[in-house]
Amino acid sequence: MSERRYLAVRARGLTKYYADRCVVDRINLDIPQGCLFGVLGPNGAGKSTTMRMLQGVTPPDDGDLVVMGCHIPSQAVRARTRMGVIPQTDNLDPDFTVEENLQVYAHYFGMDAQAVQPRISELLHFVDLEGYERAHINSLSGGMKRRLTFARALINEPDLIILDEPTTGLDPQVRHQIWDKLRELRQQGRTLLLTTHYLEEAQRLCDELVIIDQGKILEHGRPQELIARLVESEVVEIHDNPRAMDVLQSIQGCRTESSGGSIYGYLHNAKSAIDLLHEQGIASLQRPANLEDVFLKLTGRGLRG
Amino acid sequence: MDYGLPHIGPGALRVAGRNFKVWRKLIIAGVLVHILEPLLYLVALGYGLGVFIREISGMTYLSFLASGIMVSSAMMTASFESMFSAFSRLDHQRTYEGLMATPLIVDDIAIGEIIWSAFKAAMSGIGILLVAILLGAVEGWRSLLAIPVVFLTGLTFAAMALNTTALARRWDFFQYYMTLLLTPMMLLCGVFYPVSSLPSWMQTAVQFLPLTHAIDIIRPLLTGQSVSNLMLHLLVLLVYLLVFGFASLVLLRKRLYV
Predict the structure, then answer these.
(1) Are B94 and A91 an interchain contact pair (Cβ–Cβ within 8 Å)?
(2) Which of A29, A67, A161, B141 meets the CB 3.0–4.6 Å disulfide criterion with A84?
(3) Beta carbons of A105 and B98 less than 8 Å apart
(4) What does the alpha-carbon distance between residue B20 and residue B14 come to, in Å, rounded to a whole number?
(5) Domains and their CATH numbers in chain A
């Protein structure tokens, strides 16, 4: 029996222009239900625009988009009743306290104020904000605001959670906590759609991901599969020693890249390269290839806007 | 541009309800503003100028002024709420962005903000009515009918001002609207003196401004006189409300669905 995959998101030829610039260029997406799916790309790649189109707040210029069985944008309101959104920039309501933010948000979903109260306590517990019910938004730290935004996005028990760079600007403690929460939510069977440019985050968390740049999908797959398929298995890094380039280039099957004062050698077995560099008195670091290597290979090392 | 008809649903009341919850938290300050301001105006101008003006249009200057202040205050309250407060929710507070991640739509936001602004205008109207009653400037129970008319006036001016908000990129932009529309109406439409004192061409001109018509309904209501041309005055307010309400909706859709 073939595995039947129900899709939380199905996009075909999704396209968006701003003025004459094509920011999302005929992309296709199949996001299975229950998947923790990553959308990776440099700044300005079209990630946020794609997320906004899925929510039905940015009308696509072309293509078909179905989110949880609802056609977008015509049935976006129905889709949003089962969707939770964590935006890139916090937009908590500064006129309200922590608890009021959740109450007011529940009201936007048409939820009953009495009935939602236990859910609010449960969510504040989930994000470790118990005891802050009456705190004002402006008195919260960045990490606490993010956690409250998280709780707010879960108020309607969403089946699909959209997270637009959820850990940007957070300290490692909060990031790790958020990763744990994301895994927990996936365990509950929810679909999570995450944009990020932290490759380590994507590699650890995502079941599947796409890498996009300039509005186009460059690759789609599981993190380990992409690493195995697209880059050599090992990396040698040399910092501030230009002589290393000649040494690496003399090794057969070694692909080299340089950026600033750093030189990178990509190859399947680093042992011989390390030995050779050692003989020449060149210090080097060796590590397994990761998603960042895939990302940089696909999108280049040039800076983005 | 999305010229679709307005979608009217319970969402608008949820948007208005959000603003109401914020207002309720600061209710003392809110009520104080609505009582103290008109009190100052009525005492200062009504008594101060009233000495020189024994009678105006068959009433004391205090009575004349009470109805004028009631309507102009409704205009200012609704306009400011739909401009400054709505703009901060649109722009730096990102409140609308948050709202739009829920089942609410832009139509709910536009209609909700207009209803809320009118509610605040009605609150200011009630404040002034109380002050005017205390000062003996109001006659008869019929004056209570002024409250729904103030609400309608609030809807009309909120709908007009919301267009400015949907177009504004910076706070300075509101200065145009205030200087070019609100201040002239405040000074020319019969708040402080009867329109009949103006040169005849100006009398004709102010007939095209909604504030004139709101005053023409409310002044007789507060002083026990009969309202002439009631249907015409209501129609003008209603046309302004529908035309500018729809325009603000189209502009906000364009601004927010990007």
Answers:
(1) yes
(2) A161
(3) yes
(4) 10
(5) 7-228 (3.40.50.300), 233-288 (3.30.70.260)
